[in-house]
Amino acid sequence: MKRVAILFILTLFVWGCGQKETHDDLNWTTDLGKALQLAKQENKAVLVNFTGSDWCKWCFKLSDEVFSQDEFKEYADKNLVLVKVDFPEHKEQTNQTKMYNKSLAKKFGVQGFPTIIIINSGGRMVAKTGYQAGGPVNYINHIKSFLSS
């Protein structure tokens, strides 16, 4: 019986360790169509973040090292419309949201997380990328390199 109790406690501990979720103060939308319209009106690019917000380690790193940093928030506010397409394991989503997110993932050929799609203000996809080490300034330069070519 003691073994079962220890096994149960260990299982809860391991399960709890995976319960992290990405958090930042950015203004994310979930509607790509509206984001594209807004980007065109405001002459901004669209950054589409395909994420597993409550289970993906690399998504946590991208959020912690880039999206939650003031430098990125400042850049995003002036230059980007942000779209989050989430594939959580522990957070509830409606069937409509799940289907919409799957259709976007299929449209952009997403095969892993995080996948970042950059769309210019004219609505043309200019890049598919992911996590990049180096913090917010490096990531901003990474985005700018796609938009300037």
Average per-residue pLDDT, rounded, comes to: 90
Tell me how many strands there are: 5
What is the CATH architecture annotation? Answer: 3-Layer(aba) Sandwich
The percent range for helix content is: 40-55%
Helical stretch tally: 6
Topology order in helix (H) and strand (E) letters: HEHEHHEHEEH
> Rg to the nearest angstrom?
17 Å
Q: What's the end-to-end separation, in Å?
A: 65 Å
Low-confidence segments, ≥5 residues, pLDDT <50?
Answer: 4-19
Q: Do you know the CATH topology?
A: Glutaredoxin
In the CATH scheme, the class would be: Alpha Beta
**What do we call the CATH homologous superfamily?**
Glutaredoxin
Which percent band covers the strand fraction?
Answer: 15-25%
> Which structural class fits the helix and strand makeup?
alpha/beta
Spatial sequence of strands, sheet with the most strands: 1-3-2-4-5
Largest sheet properties:
5 strands, mixed
Which term fits the overall shape? globular
Count of domains: 1
Task: Provide key terms for this protein.
5-stranded mixed sheet; 6 helices; 50% helix; single chain; Glutaredoxin; 149 residues; alpha/beta
List the helices and strands and how they pair.
Layout: H1 2-17, E1 28-29, H2 32-42, E2 45-51, H3 57-67, H4 70-79, E3 80-86, H5 95-107, E4 115-119, E5 125-129, H6 135-148
Parallel strand pairs: 1-3, 2-3
Antiparallel strand pairs: 2-4, 4-5
